[in-house]
Amino acid sequence: MQRKNNPELQAVVAQLCPDSRPASVTYEPVSGLTGESWRFDTGRLQGLAREASQAKSLLGASRRQEYRILRRLRHCHLAPSAWALTPGWLLVEWIKGRAFSTDEWQNTLADGGLARCLSGLHKMPLLGYPLALPQRLLRWWHYVDPSRRTPAWLKLHKRFTRSTLPRPLLVAPLHMDIHAGNLIIGSYPAQPMHFIDWEYAGDGDIALELAALFRGNDVSRPQQMQFIDDYCQASGLHYTAPQLLRQIARWLPWVDYLMLMWYEVRWQQTGEKAFTELADCLGARMGLRR
Question: Most buried residue, 111, 137, 246, 283, by most Cβ within 10 Å?
Answer without folding.
Answer: 283
